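Contributing new records

If you add data, match the layout below exactly. Sequence lines come first and carry their own label; structure lines follow with theirs. Keep one chain per record. Anything else will be rejected by the validation script.
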Amino acid sequence: MKKAFAVIFDMDGTLLDNAEYHKKAWIKFLEKHGIEITAEEYHKKLFGRTSKEIMSIVFDRDLSDEEKTKFTEEKEKTYRDHFGDMLSPQQGLLDLLHELKENEIKLAVATSATEANLKFTLEQLAIEDFFLTTTNSSEISRSKPHPEIFLKTAADLGVEAERCLVFEDSPPGVEAAHKAGMRVIVVNPSEKEKIIQYTDHIFEDFNPLNYSRIVSIMNQ
């Protein structure tokens, strides 16, 4: 019998489909600072980066760490205040979480989001009790596609990287999981053409997935 495994979830775009809300929050935030950005520019320049990485890009100048932190907190507060009540779990997520927990699978979240957004989101979705540990952007020095966030989370779980399965939605996250030596399943995929080189387990949501199917993927 193969050794036990753990499951690590990305948050934004994976636990919930909230990309549109983040885009609208960015537009509101930037409008307040006199900066205009189109949806096309958002997806080309900003999508998939951390908020702190984005700030120097949109303000088009070098920012101090203090400025990056201040602006990031402002933008994420805009997101929470305007769209927090609209957040809901990805389809099929709750059933899968319950089934994994019943089978004593260790669960974690690894997200490039801020600590405040992580806490807020898990509480809004009422799923914080499922996870043994979480990792947010303040706990790492290198963002996805670097594997640091997944390797740290695996260490915190006490599980070898090769015995971890990651749920992701974006190409940088999928690449990071692959570099960490972990199996990866994609839900709510963005840019499929950049994902298929790393995995052929791609689903629109969690509905087709259950414990038995995950065990099968882990034991391949």
